[in-house]
Amino acid sequence: MLLMSHRGGHQESKKKLEISPSETMKAEEENYKEEAKEPKSEDWRPPSVFGAADLKNRAVGLYNIGQTCCLNSLLQVFLMNIHFTKILRRISVPVCATQKKKNVPYQMLLLLEKMQCGKQKAVSPRELVLCLEAHRVTMFVQYDAAQLFLTLWNLLKKQMKNPELVEKLSDLYTISVQEHLACQICSSETKRNSSMLSLPVPLLDSDSSMLKTLEKCLQCFFRPEELTGHNMCFCEHCGKKTPFQQSVKLVHLPQTLTIHLKRFCFGRSAYIHKISNCLPFPQDLDFNAVLTEQQCQAYDNEKAAWRYELFAVVAHSGTTSYGHYCAYIRSLTECKWYCFNDSFVEQVSWDDVKSTYGHSDLYWGQTAYLLFYMKKQPQ
């Protein structure tokens, strides 16, 4: 499974509630019994979904069925991404009803069909919630969106049986970096290639001063760090602990780039607090203009494709212990911005999206927490 960087966000405390299956789910179970009588080919797919989602891609809400605003926001980001739904529509459908209930990609596909093929303004994610609970994902609790995004992605990747689709899913979201660790005494260096689902960028620099722009946050993340004093590492060549320089170099960026703004951090009192300060982020982002040559480990043809356009923002309002999530998403078929606030969906302007930059004086104001950028098509 893909792991997030150790710099990622925290997960809040959990308290379990119960949920009972809806009448809709009971009706679907009857249909599953009929399907189970005659096993179908693994490549069979619901014909009504085949092609419909990418063509319509309507903005449809999701009902909040008990602290599911975080899940709802992330599902909208997944399902409004036509590159992701193209992969989702090609999954192998499980044969028996029990497997279908526990298969996250299939339940997500059913939810997509319900959203796109009906006329409702909002639908319930209940069946998918039950599916996630079957995989020990505790629901109906306050969640950290970055952690839940990683959990959903790992379940999707694990349950997609087709190796080609797994590779396409990885290509769509996975960031490749190279970690460097160099001794400052003998200059010996170790390198390690690793993958990340998101770039967890700090909002504060090494002096705890607020960074002013997203570009500054990215530069801070890729800036080499000196490991001295208590942070020194053991050098095998020197035979003792020595000062080291630690750095991360960018190797590859995916089609859909996820940036995690680390708004939750430990303060001097050892309690986690939220940074609500204003952090502007651009609509267009060119990594070649942000990073230096020394911060990259990529060929020119790879770096030529590092030009992005903002696709979605998952925003958080509230505190570390209680809050609410919503998503601002640019429809790739309409080129219009929408705000997905659970079951309520409305078209918004770029000025509305910019309202998630944050403000230190707004206690309950919306602040961007996850940014999703889409790679621009070559001219």
TrEMBL record:
<dbReference type="InterPro" id="IPR038765">
    <property type="entry name" value="Papain-like_cys_pep_sf"/>
</dbReference>
<protein>
    <submittedName>
        <fullName>Ubiquitin specific peptidase 18</fullName>
    </submittedName>
</protein>
<dbReference type="InterPro" id="IPR028889">
    <property type="entry name" value="USP"/>
</dbReference>
<feature type="region of interest" description="Disordered">
    <location>
        <begin position="1"/>
        <end position="45"/>
    </location>
</feature>
<dbReference type="InterPro" id="IPR050164">
    <property type="entry name" value="Peptidase_C19"/>
</dbReference>
<dbReference type="InterPro" id="IPR001394">
    <property type="entry name" value="Peptidase_C19_UCH"/>
</dbReference>
<dbReference type="GO" id="GO:0004843">
    <property type="term" value="F:cysteine-type deubiquitinase activity"/>
</dbReference>
<dbReference type="InterPro" id="IPR018200">
    <property type="entry name" value="USP_CS"/>
</dbReference>
<dbReference type="Pfam" id="PF00443">
    <property type="entry name" value="UCH"/>
</dbReference>
<feature type="domain" description="USP">
    <location>
        <begin position="60"/>
        <end position="376"/>
    </location>
</feature>
<feature type="compositionally biased region" description="Basic and acidic residues">
    <location>
        <begin position="25"/>
        <end position="45"/>
    </location>
</feature>
<dbReference type="GO" id="GO:0016579">
    <property type="term" value="P:protein deubiquitination"/>
</dbReference>
<feature type="compositionally biased region" description="Basic and acidic residues">
    <location>
        <begin position="9"/>
        <end position="18"/>
    </location>
</feature>
